[in-house]
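Final report, results section. Input specification for complex C-07:
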Amino acid sequence: MTGRITIVGLGPGDPRWLTPAASEALASATDLVGYGPYVGRVPEQPGQRRHVSDNRVELDRARFALDLAANGARVAVVSGGDPGVFAMAAAVFEALETGDPAWRGLDIHVEPGITAMLAAAARVGAPLGGDFCAMSLSDNLKPWEVVEKRLRAAVEADFVVALYNPISSARPWQLGAALTIVAETRGPDTPVILARAVGRPDERIRILALGEVEASLADMSTMVIIGASTTRRIVKGDGDTPYVYTPRSYGVRA
Amino acid sequence: MTGRITIVGLGPGDPRWLTPAASEALASATDLVGYGPYVGRVPEQPGQRRHVSDNRVELDRARFALDLAANGARVAVVSGGDPGVFAMAAAVFEALETGDPAWRGLDIHVEPGITAMLAAAARVGAPLGGDFCAMSLSDNLKPWEVVEKRLRAAVEADFVVALYNPISSARPWQLGAALTIVAETRGPDTPVILARAVGRPDERIRILALGEVEASLADMSTMVIIGASTTRRIVKGDGDTPYVYTPRSYGVRA
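Structure output:
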């Protein structure tokens, strides 16, 4: 087969975070496939076809992309952030595994991007400076008990925790439940970062204490980063929003 | 103060992974500060000063950079991968917190980059497609008991685990000990990715089963990704190295 698929990470919004390798992959594609707002971020190019879908049909979109490639297209599947982190890459491989065996002869690549937690962390300092976990809070694809178990394990082992997909209109209570679990172990002063739409014109970053965070402060465009017990604030000279960072060192050296 | 520091992520080796924002930050700096091989990746520019150090003096290097900025320089602290993930950003904020109070008036930014685990994951498929943890296996800055506790918690809660700094001549046994802990819970067929020097000319990626991984197969340039119980291989049409991915879904929906 001569077709090719590249699953391309656009990074989180700001085009200056799109890597040259990702730009090249987009420019050389005959077909773009993806969620409308992501495809909309790619400059239009004469002769390049754009196949836009909504955000809830990832597996169908992946199958569609594989089928296009099997018919000879050079397909770029566009993904926000990094395609491998709670985005399109896993959907494409799931479609590959369960789909037409001929698809396994396709040339499939993943082009990495800046994932939201890295951009959010960079905006406030270095909250991911120690060991950390990244979790999707969505229970659309896994039972809530799994989310709970993982979150509890992460907090008890004192990882910094980055939460993707914290809340949506269809999942209104999960973030509140997660914050309650975290508060069983972490103190009310623990820094929590709510980073909304990082790198987009409507970006808003807030640094709060765990005790004052309410789920209603987040929406589906928000990345939530919860500090470990060692995560610290540094007050700036102008008394403005502090820096937040997690030191590399932990406790007393054995 | 008029000085400025940007801690810049170069990404993992391949210049096509350097973001335009990072390129701009490097080009506009009067001074580059960093570990020699990283500074060496930045194109030389007339009039720009280069301050090169070895890799073991992160805090000294951070203080030096802050001091330069306090004297009016526009400093770029260069970091491999993403500066916020086991790299220079946390060191700069630690130096800031414990150093000259006047430094808090400086303009300090972090410019994110592609961190090694994202590039390594992209090379093989989507192994980070589910919830995952990122840990440094170095016990230079934290007691080994903390590493052990976190690793055990991560494995028991069935996170994919990405290990940074797995081994060095000064830390020869830690990776072996970590693999033993993982094998208490994960089966011998669990996919393990050893991704060495991703994006560099000497890149080498291996996909092994947990039962066949030996610590001696990794070195200090290796990123280790250990699959969760759900992480799967997909055999390619040509029977070559398989894809590895972690499905987004987990178990039966509650």
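Chain B touches chain A through 88 residues (CB under 8 Å). The helical segments of chain B are 20-27, 36-39, 58-70, 88-98, 116-124, 144-156, 174-185. This concludes the modelling results for the funded period.
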